[in-house]
Structure formats: structure tokens, C-alpha cells
């Protein structure tokens, strides 16, 4: 398995509170991604990073922000959590270029009550 | 716009029977397609990609550009094949990131 660690793995939080999920990699890959997984939607890209301090939006970025201050860490923040953000969040990494494998973390289960 | 469609949410077959999971895509460029498998509450694992054309765990998939399909097949299903399967299309961003567009997933159940 690729060296990807997500924390926390499970979290229950209240509506309106900020939440930060962390993705840590030991592979020194340039690209990192955050996806959310929901029934009937598969996985959808939230944000991605192409280098330290370099990020861009994905398909479902509203309500989320990200930061990458070091190559190995990519943080996903829900500024004010809502029930619609209850989901499973997956981090992924890749070295880029066509044909390269994209590796996924184990997921973070977030419940907003 | 890029799109991946997996028409079957659920698929149930008996052990030893052939399996085919359907995937259709919409993409204006040259597609790069993957199949990922997710066992119960675990991470997504790459099953295969069309570029390598290799067979993993007995599964194969052929890219058909005319029909814009990338169906996953296995001649003889095994109980350990029960899992969620996702078809995904890779779209390169201008920064070189591989953004994956996923289908909705097909939950495959192999009955003994």
C-alpha cells in the first residue's frame, strides 16, 4: 500500500463547527487530491494540489478549503460544517503524468449532526 | 463535458458464472480509463487500467472507442470478488494533475 495516512478516521461534529481533515503521505508525490464518496454519486473531486501552496478547485469545492504547506501534508477544511457534508472523504496521491497510478487513503468518515 | 456511466447499481451472479460490469464514458479527448475495486469499508484499490492491458485477479477490460465503453469482465466469478467496483476516467489538468471522474459504482455480489 502507498504511504498515505488520513486523520481522523472517524469524526462526529455539530452543524456550524469547523472541521479539518489531514492527509499525510510518505511517497513525496507531487499531486494530492481530496474526494468525497456518496451513494449514487461515486467519488467526486473536491480540491487538488499540484505543489506546495498550489491548489485548485474540483467538481464540488463549495464549502471546502484546502492548504498544503509541506509536500507531505494536504489539509481539507470545512469552514462551517453542514449536514450535506456528511460523507466519506478520501485522499489520493499521484506522481502525475498519464499512466501513473493514483493511490487512495483509507478514508475519513465524517458525520455532521 | 466528461462523464462516466455505470448503468447497474447492483449486480448479483452465482459463483463460477461469467461477470460483466458495464462502463460507458463521454470524453472529447483520448481517454485514460481505470477500474477500481473497494472491499467493505476499505480504500479504493486499482484493479486495472486500459493502458497496461494487464489482467488482475482474472479481470480484463477492453477499451472500445467506437462504443465509448470500457466494460469489466471475468469468465468465472469467485466469492471474494464481491465488492464495489468503480470505473474512472482520468482528465489531465493544465498543471498535470490526474483528475478522476468516477461512475456511480456497481456493487457486485457473488452468490455461493
Describe what this molecule looks like in 3D.
The complex is a heterodimer of chains A (113) and B (112). Chain A has one domain (4-112): Immunoglobulin-like. Chain A contains no helices and 11 strands. Chain A has strands spanning 4-7, 10-13, 19-25, 31-38, 42-51, 54-57, 64-70, 73-78, 87-94, 103-104, 108-112. Chain A is globular, with a radius of gyration of 13 Å. Chain B is mostly beta strands and 112 residues long. Helix content of chain B is 0%, strand content 46%. Chain B contains no helices and 11 strands. Chain B has strands at 3-5, 10-14, 19-21, 24-26, 33-38, 45-49, 60-61, 72-74, 83-92, 98-102, 106-111. In chain B, the strands form 3 sheets. In chain B, strands 2, 5, 6, 9, 10 and 11 form a 6-stranded mixed beta sheet that branches. Chain B has a 3-stranded antiparallel beta sheet with strand order 3-8-7, with no helix packed on it. Chain B has a two-stranded antiparallel ribbon with strand order 1-4. Chain B is globular, with a radius of gyration of 14 Å. The model of chain B has no long low-confidence stretch (mean pLDDT 93).
So, the CATH homologous superfamily of chain A? Immunoglobulins
> What kind of sheet is the major sheet of chain A?
7 strands, mixed
The structure class of chain A reads mainly beta
CATH class (first level) name of chain A = Mainly Beta
Distance between the termini of chain B: 41 Å
Mean pLDDT of chain B: 93
> Could you tell me the number of beta strands of chain A?
11
Q: Rg of chain A to the nearest angstrom?
A: 13 Å
Largest interface summary: A-B, 32 and 31 residues
Name the helicity range of chain B.
under 10%
Strand content of chain B: over 45%
How many helical elements of chain A?
0
- Count of DSSP E strands of chain B? 11
**What amount of the residues of chain A lies in strands?**
over 45%
List the domain count of chain A as a whole number.
1
Outline type of chain B = globular
Q: Level of helix content of chain A?
A: under 10%
What's the number of helices of chain B? Answer: 0
Identify the CATH architecture of chain A.
Sandwich
Amino acid at each position: 500500500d502507498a504511504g498515505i495516512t488520513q486523520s481522523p478516521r472517524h469524526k462526529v461534529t455539530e452543524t456550524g463547527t469547523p472541521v479539518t481533515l489531514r492527509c499525510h503521505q510518505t511517497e513525496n508525490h507531487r499531486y494530492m487530491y481530496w474526494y468525497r464518496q456518496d451513494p449514487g454519486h461515486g467519488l467526486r473531486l473536491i480540491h487538488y494540489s499540484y505543489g506546495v501552496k498550489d491548489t485548485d478547485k474540483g467538481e464540488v469545492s463549495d464549502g471546502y478549503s484546502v492548504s498544503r504547506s509541506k509536500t507531505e501534508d494536504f489539509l481539507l477544511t470545512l469552514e462551517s460544517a453542514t449536514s450535506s457534508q456528511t460523507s466519506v472523504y478520501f485522499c489520493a496521491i499521484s506522481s502525475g503524468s498519464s499512466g501513473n497510478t493514483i493511490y487512495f487513503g483509507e478514508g475519513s468518515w465524517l458525520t455532521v449532526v | 463535458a466528461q462523464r462516466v456511466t455505470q448503468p447497474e447499481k447492483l449486480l448479483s451472479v452465482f459463483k463460477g458464472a461469467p461477470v460483466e460490469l458495464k462502463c460507458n464514458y463521454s470524453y472529447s479527448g483520448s481517454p485514460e480509463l481505470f477500474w477500481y475495486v473497494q472491499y467493505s469499508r476499505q480504500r479504493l484499490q486499482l484493479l486495472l487500467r486500459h493502458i497496461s492491458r494487464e489482467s488482475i485477479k482474472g479481470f480484463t477490460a477492453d477499451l472500445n472507442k467506437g462504443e465509448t465503453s470500457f466494460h469489466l469482465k471475468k469468465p468465472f466469478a469467485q466469492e471474494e470478488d464481491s465488492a464495489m467496483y468503480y470505473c474512472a476516467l482520468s482528465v489531465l489538468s493544465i498543471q498535470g494533475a490526474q483528475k478522476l471522474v468516477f461512475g456511480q459504482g456497481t456493487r457486485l455480489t457473488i452468490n455461493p
